[in-house]
Each structure stands twice: as structure tokens, then as C-alpha cells.
Description:
The structure holds two protein chains of two kinds. By secondary structure, chain A is α/β, with parallel strands linked by helices. Chain A is built from twelve helices and 14 strands. In chain A, strand 13 (about 380-385) and strand 14 form a beta hairpin. Chain B has helices at about 1-35, 45-60, 65-90, 95-120, 145-165, 170-180, 180-185, 190-210, 225-235, 240-260, 270-280; strands at about 135, 140. The mean pLDDT of chain B is about 85.
Amino acid sequence: MGRINAWRFAIVPVVICCLSLFWGASIASAQKKPAIKLGVNLDVTGYGAWLGEPELRAVQLFAEQVNARGGIDGCPLELVVYDNESNPEKSSSNARKLIQRDKVTAIIGTAITATSNAAKSVAQEEKVVTYSLSGSYEPNYADSFTFATWVHTSGMVETIYDYFAKKGIKRVATLCATDSTGQTWHDETEKSAKKYGFEIVSERFNVKDVDVTAQLAKLKATNPQALIVGVSGAPNAVVAKNFNQMGFKIPYVTGHGNISDTFLKLMEGNEPETLLLPGAYYIVWKELPDAYPQKRLMKEFAEAFQKKFKKEADIYAVVAYDAARVTAEGMRQAKPEGSKDSLKLRDAMELIRNFPAVYGGTYTFSKEEHRGIKKDAAVMIQVKGGKFVMAK
Amino acid sequence: MENTHLSQAIQFIFAGLTSGSIYALVALGFDIIYNVTFVVNLAQGEFLMLGAMTMISLHSGLKLPLPLALVLSTLIVGCVGILFDRFAIRPLKKPSIMLLILLTLGGSTFLKGVALLIWGKDPYTAPTFTRIKSISFLGASFSPQMLWVIGTLVIVSFVLWFFFERTLIGKAMRACAENQRAASLMGVNVKTFVMISYFLGGALGALGGMLVAPISFMVYDEGTMMGLKGFASAVLGGVGSYPGAVVGGLVLGLLESLSTGYVSSIFKDIVAFLVLLCILVLKPTGLMKRSDE
């Protein structure tokens, strides 16, 4: 016992020394201008890592660029990064740590819906702006402190329907999974079909099914002009194989969650004649005319990312980069000091209008709209020769 | 209009037979292991996943010719079955049914983990065995892979029947199933036969996996659901009965596709499992097993 107590006493002066060093350091930097702290709570490991990793890189790139240009109003931007291991509990404790201990002004993260939902209650309780990068996170509710990126599924469905209307397609068949992604696709396609005056027939399937010819046979009997397959990832292989085997020649349209190299590899050799998806303009930035207002931004980002990380920037890196840009823009307006000013920051972010997005389109926020990005940021994309190209 | 109804009905039946045959192969694997050891091997679905993944690696990765890849994967997964028995089941000092089931559950998680390390989280798919895109029949169309699936099921059923009824090894295995103690008194080395049963269980699972991979896709955790469906088929047909496994699998597959076709695709699983429950309430021993057994 005696020894343990002695150790405890030994720790006290060490802590005091450390604190005073810290104090001195912060006084030294205060002579310039205090740093603005931006928390990063991302799924860098665990099953969300494939999203969290490029997202973290993009935020790091952004901070480096901002500081190279003299920071935000002369204040350097300081990142405080915590990995939540794709674990909801860890995500909420990270958020608390960032706000209470590190006193960050805003938090970027997280990458997946489960960890975003876990961080939401902390954001609301502490009233600190939290920018989710998850595609299906819902940021619009009363007195929201959370923001989200990505065009909502409803906007993606309208992008598809606009394209159909242009091509004279009026009879639409849908085959949506019974999981939560599929449910959203099912509801949104039904809802918008009324608005566009389309005839719609729908079937459902389980993501674990090895055969969907029964569903396709029922749809085929109604003679549709296009098929929308509401599912993300591997089950597309089953549907596409059955679709080809049954001799369908109509366009096969699937969700924006499928824009990945894994999807291209999976569909190799099984691609339907016309394979379409809605997605961000950034995905086809090289094809965009120079007159496209965000092309220069996209090019600069893609090249800077490539130079720093020797890796192509995917769409996940883009949403993280955009989230950091929007937050920094809000900071420029609000000039916050520490987490107590996050309310000011949120109100400033809600006033942002027509802010160009690397994603494509522009961000326009309001009290009721914390996603800020609409279907004009999305475009129809076609898979041709194992690549994503703009649909003609 | 009549014609579309007919071709739709045929399409539903084809769809059911395809998934049903896969379920039947998994169910056969369950039954073989159960009959010799009385263990319900919950890792059966993982054998299926391993078979598919190994075949894809050998064929698409190492560019081995398909027949060689098929044979090698069957053998490899069969050996995984043996290792599973040797290192997970046999070291148990006092095996009780509960403990054994838990062990196979642990084994299934372990195999999933190993597959995750080897193949990652990406889904893989394989080309069909024959290069024909599709076959039409009375307005319905199906994948040539379906013929492979059903053909394999027929051949495997026949070979198993021949093995258990006509060969000495097969008869000895049946003896182990009847009464292990009596069999060992008659000079049958029970341990060897337990090993053979695990080899066969693994190999059959692998066959199912290799056949299903070109139809759908394979991910490290895809085997679990297949294992469940296979187990349901085995129960439906009567646990331990080989004809029961085949009939159970096909009935479950047909139930699923017909309820999709004629009821609703949302209620597919509910309808299929409701019918399964009803059958089991009316005939608790399963479709193909006499109640006196």
C-alpha cells in the first residue's frame, strides 16, 4: 500500500509540470492567434474503414491546404482525430471527449449510419455542430445540430425519373431488397412515380436469395420499359444474372450505393446491355465541359489528393472534403472560439447559399435543410467497358 | 394470356428447383454427419462458403482448369471437415449434445473469421460452367447452371445410395449410426468413420457452394443463411434421412418460389416457413421418415 501511495504522490508534480508546459505553449501560440479546433470522429478501422480511411485523408488534406493559406481569418485550423473503430459506443464517447476535453468547435464524422446515429444524441445534448458523412443519416429535425452530405435517395430517384422522361420511358418495374436500403428505394420510387405520372409495378427480394427469376417473371408479364433494382452491392450480381438469362433488353438501373470498383468487378461479364446508376457529377468530372462551374474545383481536389496520397480520390473522400469546406466557410462567418460558440457556427452554416460543391452542384442550407444539396448535383451514369461514364 | 401463365408457372418451378437443389446438398451434408455422430453441425453452411471461395481462387485466381479446381476444392474442404472433427470435436472429454452444438457454432464463427482474413469482405462471383447464356423452355428461361445443380444432386443422391447400401464401408458407417458400441465390438473403427463422415459433410457442402457461386455470389458470411435453409430442409425431410434431405430441400425451394409467384415476394420467407411449421406439426418426424424409426 505504502508504495502505491508514494507513486501517486510522484505523479502529482509530473502532471503539474506537464500542465505548465502546456500552458506555456498555449500562451506562446496565443501571441499569434488561437487555433480553431476541428474534431474528427471517423470509422478508420472496423467494417466502416473503407469509408473512414479516404474520408480522414481528405480532411487532413483540407486542413493542410487551409493552414498553408494562412488559416481561417488568421487562425490555424487544428485537427483532433479519434478513431471510433466503427463501433457506435466508441463513436458517442469520442464525440463527448472531443467536446468536453478537447473543446472542439465542430466535429466531422462519422462514416456509417450506426456510428452517426450514436453521435447524434451527444451533438444535440452538447449543442455542437456534427457533420455526418453517412449517406442515409437524416439531419433534418427540430433544432438540429447535425448536418449530412450526399443527395438523398429521393433526389437520386428523381434524377432517374428525369432521365426516363427524357427517353420516353413511362412503364417502370422495380425490384427492391427487403433491407432498409431497399425499403427506402421502394418507398421513394413509388412516391415519385405518381408525381411523374409513371405506371409502376414492384416486387421485393431478400438480399440472401440465390434466384429472383420468379419475381422477374412476374415483372416481365407487365412489359416494363426499365427496371430499377433497389439494392446496394453483391445481390446485384444475382439480379443481373437472372435478368440477362431471361432475355431482358430494357435498361437496368441500380442505386448510387453501387458506385465502387468492387461493384464493377462484381458485374464484370454479367453486365446488362444498359446498366445505369444515378451519382454525383464528380464521378465523371473528366468528361465534364470546362464550362461546368465546379470542374476546376474537382480537378484541383483530385490532383492534390493524388499528389499527396498517391491514390485516386473516390467519392467518399469528396464528401468528407466538402463537409470540411462547408464547416470552414461557417467558421469564417462566425469566428468561433471553442465549443461554446458552436451555436453561432450552426446559425452561420444555415445561412450558406450557393456554395460550390466538389461533389457537384451547390450547397444551400437553411434552418430546415441541413443536407443542403439537391438533385442538380446528381447525374445519370452508365457502366461501359468496366468504367463509369456519363449516360447519353 | 394462357401462355404467359404457363410460362410463368414453369419459371417459378425452375427457380424453386434451383435453390431447392442447393438446400438439398447442404441438407445431405447435415444428415451424413448427424447419422454417424449425432452432432448437428452448424458449420455446414461455412463448408459451402469455403467450397465456393476455394473454387473461385483456384479457377479465377490461379487459372486452373475448371474440373481440376472443382476436384481440388472438394478435397480441400473435405479435409477442412476432417480437421474440424480432429481439433474441435474429438478433443472433447465428455461430449454432450449441447456442448457439441455450441462447438460447431464456434467452429462456424471461426471459419468465417478465417475466410474474412483470406478473402476480405468483397463479394466474388464465378462464370457459369458452360458458356451458354440461357436456355428457353416453353417461354420460360433458365441458366444452364441450373442443369448442373440438378444433375449434380441426382448423381450425388445415387452415389450416396450406392455407397451406403452396396459397399462395405457404407454399411459399416450405417452400423456406426445404428449403434456405435455394437459397431466397434464388431471390429468397426468408429473414429475412422466419424472422420469419413466429416470429410463427406465438408465435400458435399463444398459441392453446393461451387454450384451456387456462378448463380449468385459469395462473401465470407454468405454460408450462414444457406446453412440455415439446409438445416430447415433436413428437418422438413426428417433429420437423418437421405431421401428426406433431397425431398425437403426441393420442397422448401419450391415453397419459396411459388409463394413469391402466387402470393407476394414480401411474404416469401413467411409463407415458406409457415408451411414448414404446419408440415412439422402434422408430421413431426419429417416428410420422409417413418415414425417408428
